[in-house]
Amino acid sequence: MARFQTYFTSLLALSMFACTGHHDVATVSSSISANLAASAAGTYTGHYSKGMMTLVINYISGNIASGYDIHKGLRRNLNGQVEQNSTKLTFVLKEPGGNPYDGTFFLTYDSATEKIIGKWVPTDSTKAHEGIVNLARMGTTNENDDLGEFLGNLGRLYFGEEGVCTLEYYPSKDENAQLITVKGSYEQIGDTVQIDWQRNDHTPALNMKLIRTKAVEETDSTSSTPRKLVGKGVEFEENNAG
Questions:
Q1: Contacts 24+ apart (CB under 8 A), 49-52
Q2: Residues 43 and 125 in one domain
Q3: What is the C-alpha to C-alpha distance for residues 74 and 176, in angstroms, rounded to an integer?
Q4: What percent of the chain has a predicted confidence (pLDDT) above 70?
Q5: Structural domain total, the chain
Q6: Within a domain: 11
Q7: Do 117 and 166 share a domain, yes or no?
Q8: Residue 117, exposed/middle/buried by CB under 10 A (0-12, 13-18, 19+)?
Q9: pTM recorded for the entire structure
Q10: Which range of residues forms the domain containing residue 75?
Q11: Are 231 and 147 in the same domain?
Q12: How confident is the model over 69-125, as pLDDT tens digits?
């Protein structure tokens, strides 16, 4: 009888092992394949919460990843960990922490769509709120490259790389006054330019929508009216000097 019980116990254990061994488990690896790492590296643009964001991933090795994000013209370095789950990568990337609005990104990269989705969680929840992140890889050609520099009643507006724009102005007509720079993130869709400014007391709104007008040639064909950006009670004229 004792021999039968021992045999039955062993058979039951083998049966349980066989059952559990047939469950499909996703393959998770902390060692990222070289091809997938190369695929994920690059620049992504899109939206965080209700604003615009640029994310750059420039280093993936082992389970370490780094890069930076740009939101409202403010650039923050990112460092953290990455894991591979089949054809996807999951990132946990932290901002430095020296800014009261720093936090941590929890992101997933899908190599099939070349998109990154996830969320950002603030370190200090009394300063900011958690937000959804939805980004897509930036193409090699970008409408934003066509903007350049404009001059207007708010100052000098320059559109640069990676979706960052700067507004420079003097607070008064005093020659000794110090030049002030306000940064923002922008997105161009057709002739509409949307700007999210960092906190400031100079622009009429922190979120501005400007419409770009086309250049108009004069009847004598020797001169033309430059393109303009208008909206929110402000006007900028394209600066073609130099």
A1: 49/120, 49/129, 49/131, 49/132, 51/185, 51/196, 51/207, 52/163, 52/185, 52/186, 52/187, 52/194, 52/196
A2: yes
A3: 27
A4: 81
A5: 2
A6: no
A7: no
A8: middle
A9: 0.76
A10: 28-137
A11: yes
A12: 999 999 999 999 999 998 999 999 999 999 999 999 999 999 999 999 999 999 999
